[in-house]
Amino acid sequence: MPISEYREIRFDAGALRAALQARLLEANARQGPGVAPLAGTVVAASVARADPLQLALEIASPEGAERGSVIMEAVEVAAALIRACMERGIRLPRSGAKSVKAIPGGVALVVTVTHADGAAPAAGPRVT
Question: Which of 128, 91, 127, 121 is nearest to 109 (CA)?
Fold first, then answer.
């Protein structure tokens, strides 16, 4: 019987906004010529749809005079949270299935790994 591993890395509202802001800046840097960048600061993020996760971001202009909103799909939210984990040194298994879900007060990055039968044990302490 295989063994499954399940982890949730939870981002509260502040950590979520910071991760989404970094993703927004990254996306702006990738924009081609003639495409208006999404300039500004992420001031709020709310769940627009729970399954699959979709976030509504409220973005304030650099001077703060105007506000707009944009919808971010689960794949973009996951990319933002994975990047935030990498920047903080939180190790994530490459082979793990990654998804996102709404939690009270934020969003969680969910990592699931299934270890096959007969896999060699990892080095470390042994229990006898």
Answer: 91
List the single range of 61-65, 70-74, 95-99, 112-116 with lowest mean pLDDT. 61-65
* Residue range of the domain that includes 66: 3-31+38-115
Is residue 9 a part of any domain in this protein?
Answer: yes
- Cα 97 to Cα 59: distance, rounded to the nearest angstrom: 30
What pTM does this model have? Answer: 0.81
Beta pairing partners, 98? 111
Query: What do you get for the CA distance between the two ends of the chain, in Å?
Result: 21
Nearest to 101, CA basis, from 113, 91, 111: 111
In a domain, 121, yes or no: no
